[in-house]
Known about the structure:
This protein starts with a helix and ends with a strand. It is elongated and about 90 Å long. The strands form 6 sheets. It has a 16-stranded antiparallel β-sheet that branches. Strands 1-18-17-16-15-21 form a 6-stranded mixed β-sheet, with no helix packed on it. It has 2 domains: 2-331, Glycosyl hydrolase domain, family 43 (Tachylectin-2, Chain A), CATH 2.115.10.20; 342-618, no CATH class. It is built from 3 helices and 39 strands. It is 5% helix and 43% strand. It is mainly β. A hairpin with a 3-residue loop joins strand 11 and strand 12.
Amino acid sequence: MRFCLFLALIFAHAASASSVPTPLTWTTSRPLVFPEADAAHPIVSVKDPSVVYYNSKWQVFATTADTSGNWSMVYLNFPSWEDAVTAKPFYLDQDAGLRGYHCAPQVFYFRPQNKWYLIYQSPDPTYSTTDDIEKPGSWTAPKHFFAQTPPTIVQGWIDFWMICDDTHAYLFCSDDHGRYYRSSTTLADFPNGFSDPVVIMQDSNAFNLFEGSCVYHLKGQNEYLCFIEALGSGGHRFFRAFTSDRLDGTWTALDQANNWDTPFAGANNVRAADGGTPWSADISHGELLRDGYDETMTVDPTNLSFLYQGTDRNAAQASYSQLPYRLALLQTHPAAVSDQPRVANISTRAYCSAGDRVAIGGFAVNGSDPKRVLIRAIGPGLTSFGLNASEVLADPVVEVHDASHGNAIIATNDNWGDNANVVAIQELSGIVNASAIPAGDTTSSALALTLQPGLYSFVVRGQNASSGVVLLEVYEIDDTSPSRFVNISTRAYAATGNGAAFAGFVVAGNTPKKILMRALGPTLSAFGVQDADLLKDPTIELHDASHGNVVIASNDNWQENANASDVIASGARVGATPMADSDTKSAALLMTLPPGAYSFVARGTNDSAGVVLIEVYDAD
């Protein structure tokens, strides 16, 4: 018996040929799903996701942990990953039968019975069923697969996974002690009649076969893929992969996808979309996006995506239940946009008052896919950057308008902490490298939105017609989306000193980008701004914020540029507002800029003040 087990272990660790193309390289999104607490659910973590695409929506079940270390489960759905940040969670313990310790869910549709099954740990393997996955209050009371813990389970069991072939259902699990188990029953007997689990893989180093396993059928192949979470360098989590031609067969290590250096998924083969450091140092418990939603757990090996749990690499150490897990998506074939030059994050600092002197921002999302954006209007927080409290807009209010559809208001916010997705806004601000909103600033405004391609504007005004300096910002959250910003414009009142109008933007990617920058004054008389309110002679200075904020270009009157004809041609090509023939005083620059952060300042000559339109266009 020992000799047979020894041979099985040798075979299990031999390299195998597979239809999975290894070595794998993954690109990670930023976090998509955050813990959103309410009065009854002070949760700090969302983890262990299971996901299917059904009824034109992603249906996600996950584990939650609260501030007391209690484990439970949550359900949410959304039509696209860009919409995940605004999805409303349903906590499954709202059903009295699912209160208490239930976690690590797996969901699938069992075709022989025309039922949805939810498999979970509580702490023994347990299940509930429903006829409608989108009615989260309809799950049946929990039932155990086993009347008692089988005698073959010697040090506990954890993270249960179900998969079926044509005749049998197989339950796989780990034990956090280096053992990997399998049990089975016939499809006719399911969910009853499971055999006592047997060890099918074992390692003397428990961290090599730890927990969080998944098993899938590879589409179009007589092959199955298993991956198991392991702990590598510094205790960081990664996945090792194995394959087999049978669910009841021998598992062999997947070549170039089975150790810390060349994992199935881990720190050594995951990059951020911009080519930089990923947000999480751990790739932990998750699920591949399936090619279907039934009991066969089928995935396409040529198009793998993996919804996983991670923690911000800068998060403080904590007990396991208090680790701030969030969910993000790995892709082996992401849209190849992250290295392309583009305008990414865009902002304007300006003086905001009432009437024509409110701050109005505009931007365009180009492409065919939705885009996640973070929009902020920061007032009191500007005191951290040298402005006096008397100078800032004390209570900014932001409205977002869909300029492509009648300029309808699609979102509004007064105080950023009032948003239902406040945790996402707070953490995404850090992830996109926006300055943190100071703890004492409760009156600035912010929105995290998913926007279809089109034209948008946002209006910022002070509560109760107040006035002051405000910072308007628009950030791209998902830098893997092929849709992109193509311009930002802000109509604002440019005053003197700290009241000058400042625009900031980032050229992302690896190669230079042609950018058109304009500060329009006299032309605005054609758009209803009174002559007395206009900034009649704007000037602009362009600063390289990545290199000491040095001035790299300036312009007073646009026609004095050596490339003035190109300024006009580029403006026409990108659909910019034509400058009036009589407008010789507006300012413009057309430049090719390397990747980096930039700002330009618009002010009036001779300390003049007035309303100005400042614009940044992607001119390529």
